[in-house]
Amino acid sequence: MSIEKLIAYFDRYIPLNKKEKEEIVSLFFENNIKRKGFILQENEVCKHHTFVVSGLLKMYAVDRSGTKHNIQFASEEEWINDMGSFHLENPSRLYIEAIESSVILQIKKTDLIYLFTHYRKFNIDFRVIIENKFMEMQNRLLQNLIYTGEERYLLFLRQYPTLSNRLPNTQIASYLGITPEFLSKIRHSLSKK
Amino acid sequence: MSIEKLIAYFDRYIPLNKKEKEEIVSLFFENNIKRKGFILQENEVCKHHTFVVSGLLKMYAVDRSGTKHNIQFASEEEWINDMGSFHLENPSRLYIEAIESSVILQIKKTDLIYLFTHYRKFNIDFRVIIENKFMEMQNRLLQNLIYTGEERYLLFLRQYPTLSNRLPNTQIASYLGITPEFLSKIRHSLSKK
DNA sequence: CGAAAATTTGACATGACTCAACTGGAGTGG
DNA sequence: CCACTCCAGTTGAGTCATGTCAAATTTTCG
Description:
Two copies of one chain form a homodimer. By secondary structure, chain A is of the alpha+beta class. The first copy, chain A, has helices spanning about 1-15, 20-25, 85-90, 110-120, 120-145, 150-160, 160-165, 170-175, 180-190; strands at about 30-35, 40, 50-60, 70-75, 80, 95-110.
């Protein structure tokens, strides 16, 4: 069962007692998303927080000219949602789409808040999760400011070797903030070294 | 007294009782930072979380060629630290420097953790603070991916009108991820409209 | 007042984008 | 399981946004 993966995940950081495990089982629900399926689209309110059991999702924004910009990927044991829309309950400007067919576990906002108010543990755990995401985001911003496309590509390969293999280059380019054509040229010039 | 500003700040979001106020008074300590003074430099571990009572600070990274890249500003009623270094206790790669002479209140990591473990309130409050910072950071990343320098400059003026007036253009350019020269050209071309 | 920093300006260089055309391989329906 | 479509990847020519460097000018703060 997928829910056991989530329990094992929590258990690793904040050992859970029986009652807490039961809460998890009753509050999270499972979903299967096919390749190219969406769990969030522009103008919807992001109503759930999502834990990825297996598969791979991407979150992206679409600009005026229709170009997609990947903000985040989420694979096994990672969390994803549009935090802005989730907390403020306003329409999202983002999409969350499955790159591979995926199994996910979701929780409604009210239920997550229930967990936060009744169990200090979860509050701490989610604070730490988000602190980590914040640092990752800050690093990425810095890398975008400091490094060229080629350097960012090499850093990405080093930092996410597994992901690199699962992702088409188009998706990597969109994440790095360059065009697929330019990434192709980067790869060509790297191969000559 | 500065500490009252901090108490008023907390009080606004999470009303505090007498005991909690006393904890705040005893755990935070005041510091005066002169213009161009540092509260964090590269290779130091970031040992404190900092609340700005008055003044203005910036956090930045320095790249290979010596160029500074502003990551964040913090003025009245805002928090600043290098979260990575603070939590993992490893040497920071960032600087935090006063742009204006500032009055700040600081708390040691161990004391902050004491607050987190003994008062659910603070845990929730800091989770919300960081969620907001995360969203801000994500927005900024997106803006950097989607918009040109000129567009980002106009967005900055609109989003932070007060800050824009207090900051030299050099600092704004560094935050936007463009050179001061290029910002100057942008301003010139805007003035002709 | 005087030094240091900020701003401006111009000539030139380059990283990265756009558009269009071509190729090859992967997924899908019959 | 084959044929077909379609999408990812590649390549090249031309262009644009932004950077670099250097020098002159103005502003700011101690």
